[in-house]
Amino acid sequence: xxxxxxxxxxxxxxxxxxxxxxxxxCRVIVIDNFNEYYPPEIKYQNIEEIKKTKESYELDDSFFLxxxxxIRDGEFVEKIFSKHKIDLVIHLxxxxxxxxxxxxPKLYIDVNINGTVNLLEACRKFKVRKFIFASSSSLYGNxxxxxxxxxxxxxxxxxxxxxxxxxxxxxxxxYHHLYDISVACLRLFTVYGPRQRPDLAIHKFTNMILNDQxxxxxxxxxxxxxxxxxxxxxxxxxKVISWINKDDKQYEIFNLGESQFITLxxxxxxxxxxxxxxxxxxxxxxxxxxxxxxxxxxxxxxKVLGYNPKTSFKEGIKKFIEWKLK
Length: 326
Fold this sequence. Notes:
44% of the residues lie in helices and 19% in strands. The protein is α/β, with parallel strands linked by helices. Strands 3-2-1-4-5-6-11 form a 7-stranded parallel sheet, sandwiched between helices. A two-stranded parallel sheet has the order 7-10. The protein has a two-stranded parallel sheet with strand order 8-13. Helix 1 packs across helix 8. The longest helix is centred in the middle third of the chain and has 21 residues. The radius of gyration is 19 Å and the shape is globular.
């Protein structure tokens, strides 16, 4: 039996992706270390949702295998590759978060670089020829040219997190070049929606508004993000899977974003409107490592993949709030 391996499959994006793959009757292996960057109980709840999907589609236990472990452990990774026939790796697992990377750079290098090498080495050793790597819009730094294109220079990341994602893309190309592994690197732009991590701005601000707490409002409110709804991202990854299964020996980078930008002020106002409640603002200086704006040029993804995000920010926030309050 052939499997798709999803690292970080118990997380926000990963759990949604695994559910889609099961609905398409793909067999999936999940690796996740359930670390305490945010409460592990959230990931365990995501796993329960995955199991419900498996049961509702009447799939037997061979369709979903969960391994609790760390991709930094090369021996652990190789045991999984040796035990199962893996056809495709979708590498979502990483230490995430820009600000935390400034405080813990060695941890980010260890997980995001050494962990990625372990997976690529296992692909080389066990002749797995398809690899999808979750990169980040953080690579673009404070690029003055907008919208950001895959051909833009990304040699000046402004956080350790972004630097590790840049390193991951370069490593992926090296393994593609040397060992004919087809690779897609996906530069994801600020994903939000149901199951979003509680440390991310939309989820955190929603909690604070509901609890009458002051939210940290950095700068003058003009910083902006290309917020991308989770289901649009999952649809994009699904299209990348179709693309990578068509031909051998490919290497491409794709922006997956909504191709719109929402300022911090607009983001808070949209949450206020959805909740029917005003936010209390705590004005703070812009932190080091934070980019001023992200904005995706998705023309390549549209042309090559047929990617076409459809969820407006107002609609996406409404769906997130509905999930949050149920």
